[in-house]
Amino acid sequence: MSVSLSVVTEVQLDEAIALYVASGINRPTHQPERMQGMLKHANLIVTARQDNQLVGLARCLTDYNFVVYIADLLVDKAWQQQGIGARLLAEVQRVTGPQVQQLLLSAPAAMEYYPKVGFSPLGNAFAIARKE
After folding, report:
1. pLDDT tens-digit map of 58-77
2. pTM of the complete model
3. DSSP notation for the chain
């Protein structure tokens, strides 16, 4: 039972929404047009599949030279704790290269996960919150 990773240019909306729901990540899955835009405008998507079933995904924005922002890292709850998230992150780094800094915002529940896979906390980030 091996999970395969792929860099893809698109993901089917229905399977992506099903994965977002199954992962427990908080995204506007009730707004398919917004979800479609989120996927369409990501310029690096790495998927994890088991027997063609989408079980994990990294949705990123990058210039491939200086920085990659990992907008979403998600794994179906039934597949968590098996190293899939770490493999997705490693694939993002492999594709973008060691000269590219990886950045992300963590969900509160995942704050302890990211240091375990090599991320350091930053104290110099700023944000303007979404209105919707």
Report:
1. 999 999 999 999 999 999 99
2. 0.93
3. ---EEEEES---HHHHHHHHHHHT----TT-HHHHHHHHHT-SEEEEEEETTEEEEEEEEEE-SSSEEEEEEEEE-GGGTTSSHHHHHHHHHHHHH-TTSEEEE---GGGTTHHHHTT----S---------
